[in-house]
C-alpha cells in the first residue's frame, strides 16, 4: 500500500482531515512531525492547512524553515509528489518550491465558502485523474489567499501550463489571473488554496444538485497521486 505523509506543524488544524482523505482514497496516512528529519519512507507528502507557528512574520515563513522541510525540499527536488493545501501552499512558496506569494485577501476579511474551480492542467501528480476543463466544487477558507507574482512569473506559469486550478464564477481573494493553484515545472509539487480534503466523504462535503453535503470532488486529487504511485511501482 502506498504511504503518504502528512506533516503537522504547531498550529496545523487540517492535518487529521488530510490523513482521513488519504485513507479514504486507499493509501496509508503517515503522520510526520515538523521537528523531525525523517520522512519515514513515504511515497508522497501533504502539507496541510492551518496557521503554522501562528502565522507570525508571514504565513508559512517559519514553517518553511522547520527541520522536516529540509527533507521535504530534497524529496521534492528528487521528484516525490508534494501537495500544499492553503497554509501548505503558503509554506511551499516560502520554501521556494513554488513561485510567487500569498497575501491578505483583497477585501481584507477571512473568506469561507464552497468554491467552484476549473482544472487547467491534468498533467501533474495530483490532477491526473481529471481532464483539463473539468470543474469541481471544494471548500475554501482563508484570510491570506491572494496569489501574487511578477508579470514575468505569471507569463511563465500561463505559458508553460503550470496554472493547475483556477477560480470560477467568483475570485474570492483577489488572486492574480484568478489563480487558485499552481505547480512546479516538473509537475510533482502542487499548491492550492481551496481544501480538497474537505470534499472526500458523502455527508460532509459541499452541497450538490443530488443532495446536501454530498460533494466528493476533492477525492480525485488524492486518487490522482495514488494512480501515479501505483504506475511507478
Structure commentary:
The protein has one domain: Class I glutamine amidotransferase (GATase) domain (Rossmann fold), CATH 3.40.50.880. It has 5 helices and 11 strands. The mean pLDDT is 97.
Fraction of residues in helix: 10-25%
Tally of individual helices: 5
The level-1 CATH class: Alpha Beta
Largest sheet: 9 strands, mixed
SSE string: EHEEHEHEEEEHEEEH
Percentage of residues in strands: 15-25%
List strands and helices in order, with pairings:
Blueprint (H helix, E strand, L loop, with lengths): L2 E6 L6 H11 L2 E6 L10 E4 L19 H11 L4 E4 L1 H8 L6 E3 L7 E9 L15 E8 L3 E3 L2 H9 L3 E5 L11 E5 L5 E4 L26 H14 L1
Parallel strand pairs: 1-2, 1-3, 3-4, 4-11
Antiparallel strand pairs: 5-8, 6-7, 6-9, 9-10, 10-11
Structure characteristics:
alpha/beta; Rossmann fold; 9-stranded mixed β-sheet; 5 helices; 23% helix; globular
Summarize the structure.
The chain is of the alpha/beta class and 233 residues long.
Amino acid at each position: 500500500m502506498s504511504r503518504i505523509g502528512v506533516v503537522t506543524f504547531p498550529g496545523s488544524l487540517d492535518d487529521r482531515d488530510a490523513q482521513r482523505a488519504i485513507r479514504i482514497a486507499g493509501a496509508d496516512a503517515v503522520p510526520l512531525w515538523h521537528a523531525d528529519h525523517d520522512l519515514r519512507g513515504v511515497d508522497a507528502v501533504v502539507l496541510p492547512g492551518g496557521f503554522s507557528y501562528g502565522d507570525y512574520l508571514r504565513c508559512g515563513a517559519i514553517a518553511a524553515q522547520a527541520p522536516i522541510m529540509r527533507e521535504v525540499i530534497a524529496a521534492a527536488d528528487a521528484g516525490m509528489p508534494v501537495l500544499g493545501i492553503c497554509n501548505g501552499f503558503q509554506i511551499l512558496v516560502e520554501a521556494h518550491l513554488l513561485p510567487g506569494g500569498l497575501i491578505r485577501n483583497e477585501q481584507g476579511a477571512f473568506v469561507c465558502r464552497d468554491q467552484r474551480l476549473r482544472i487547467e492542467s491534468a498533467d501533474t501528480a495530483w490532477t491526473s485523474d481529471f481532464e483539463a476543463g473539468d470543474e469541481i466544487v471544494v471548500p475554501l477558507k482563508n484570510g491570506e489567499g491572494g496569489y501574487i507574482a511578477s508579470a514575468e512569473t505569471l507569463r511563465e506559469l500561463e505559458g508553460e501550463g503550470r496554472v493547475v486550478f483556477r477560480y470560477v464564477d467568483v475570485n474570492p481573494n483577489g488572486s492574480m489571473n484568478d489563480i487558485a493553484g499552481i505547480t512546479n515545472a516538473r509537475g510533482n509539487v502542487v499548491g492550492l488554496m481551496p481544501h480538497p480534503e474537505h470534499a472526500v466523504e458523502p455527508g460532509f462535503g459541499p452541497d450538490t444538485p443530488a443532495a446536501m453535503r454530498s460533494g466528493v470532488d476533492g477525492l480525485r486529487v488524492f486518487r490522482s497521486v495514488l494512480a501515479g504511485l501505483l504506475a511507478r511501482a
